[in-house]
Amino acid sequence: MKRICIIGGGISGLLAGALLAREGYEVEIFERKKRLGGRAISMKMDELNLEEYRSLLSNFNMNIYHSEPEAEILFEKGLLKGYKLDLGFHVIGGGERAINEWLSGFGKVRMIETKLAYIKEDGYEYPFLPLKDRIGFLPQILKLLLSGEKTMEELDPVPMSETIERYGKGKMKLTLEVFSRVIATVNDLNRISTGETLRSLKLLLRGSSPVSYPRGGLESIYAGLASFMKNKIHLGKPVREIVVEDNRVSKVVADRDHEFDAVISSLLAEDLSKILKGDIPKDYLKNLNSLTGTGSLCAYVSFRKIEPDLAGKTFLFIERDVGLEGNDVAGMIDFMTCLDRELSPRDRYLVQAYAICTPEEARKKKVLDKLMEIIESNLEKLMPGFKTYTNWILYLPVWHLDGVAKTIENKKPPLITPIENLYLVGDCTKAPGIGVNCAMSSAKLLHEIIKKSKD
Ligand SMILES: Cc1cc2nc3c(=O)[nH]c(=O)nc-3n(C[C@H](O)[C@H](O)[C@H](O)COP(=O)(O)OP(=O)(O)OC[C@H]3O[C@@H](n4cnc5c(N)ncnc54)[C@H](O)[C@@H]3O)c2cc1C
Questions:
Q1: Where are the domains of the chain?
Q2: Is the peptide bond preceding residue 69 cis, with omega within 30 degrees of 0?
Q3: Per-residue pLDDT reduced to its tens digit, 229-256
Q4: C-alpha torsion sign, points 366, 371, 376, 377
Q5: How far apart are CA 4 and CA 27, in angstroms?
Q6: Which one of 436, 440, 441 would you pick to mutate in the ligand 1 pocket, going by the greatest count of ligand atoms within 8 A of its CB?
Q7: What pTM, to 2 d.p., does this model score?
Q8: Regarding the domain with residue range 3-39+218-290+412-454, which homologous superfamily does it belong to in the CATH classification?
Q9: How far is the CA of 39 from the centre of ligand 1 (A)?
Q10: How far apart (Å, rounded) are the C-alpha atoms in residues 433 and 93?
Q11: What digits encode the pLDDT tens for the residues 147-172?
């Protein structure tokens, strides 16, 4: 195997490409858009008008649901000038050490790291897991760290509701309830997979801190990879077909027909199934088409001032008995971004937040209104009268956030497919971690698989 085609220039495609190119493979990346980064992009708002912004969001299953002031005014009055916004809420699991281990040799990312806080009726608890709780949880944490993949696989079909009923008491119960929801981006504990949650928790516990945010926005994570790969990327060239003959990819159809020894897809599962042509095992296609993603309502808020104690912290919340799927709604409000002066004008503070819902709920007005109310009531608990300090607030629903939800009904596809020379990477695959972590860990794992097959 010498010549490798990578479909998609998001984080997973870029990292897989860079690792393999460094190994001596001839790698070419095809990206359908004129920009890299996929779902992990940072947008310089000075460079976009409203129409362009809306069109960019729609490419990623998002829109502007509501803003104050209205979106037209935000753009006409230049209120977004000087801001750099990620596609939606983005906080990365694990700290600087974890990310830089993956990126080793392709530039370094400086991360703002934090511990998690938890919003209560009368303020907040920081850190959410102080030393005394962590010591209390130590036996379970050690058991988790020492448990192998076989145990995780046995726990894949077990819903978190069952696990919580068995092991969750007091603070442990709350910890499992909130962590499993934000790890899975799913509110319904009956659907969240215990194995998937524990795999991701394991990865988080390895990091130097539970969550972090890249200085300069998400694009700084892939900037080094993009410059390493610059001569190997075809931008604005969608792959239209992956043709399979005799259980091998015989050609990749983009601007013209291309032949490669191996093909790596980083696409969303349903997008991959649409371009696979030829003799594909029916069960495989059926599974790809059955996989479901996650949804949320994301929010960006620009403040004139913030309470100094909040700066740099990230807050979890659960709103109880809301009546949506799962009954409770979990989410986060992140004040790490307001420490990064590259993301907003000097005298402004950027805060990001999200509330979880299903992809279907993310299209319903009644649900979105409820989620806006939830985000605002939690902001109010942190900063009473927060609207007095607000320059603008922007609400963006997303109905395909994570590639595949970590639920018991989703059978994530492994990196090795039933087609001999076709491989997968990305957050749709059976690799550990949440979102960006999953995308990066899949690329690292696939690199090891391909390297081993060469030895
Ligand atoms: C609003 C939002 C908020 C999120 N928040 C978080 C968060 O807080 N933390 C976190 O860890 N993750 C978060 N995520 C998820 C995270 O962004 C993704 O997990 C990660 O970026 C996935 O990277 P990827 O390389 O697997 O896939 P993608 O980024 O989707 O890359 C796939 C690439 O393939 C390209 N492509 C598609 N079809 C074709 C084709 N036919 N030919 C060529 N190219 C093609 C696409 O344009 C894209 O660039 C969020 C996602 C969204 C949308």
A1: 3-39+218-290+412-454, 129-206
A2: yes
A3: 999 999 999 999 999 999 999 999 999 9
A4: positive
A5: 5
A6: 436
A7: 0.96
A8: FAD/NAD(P)-binding domain (3.50.50.60)
A9: 3
A10: 8
A11: 888 998 999 999 999 999 988 888 88
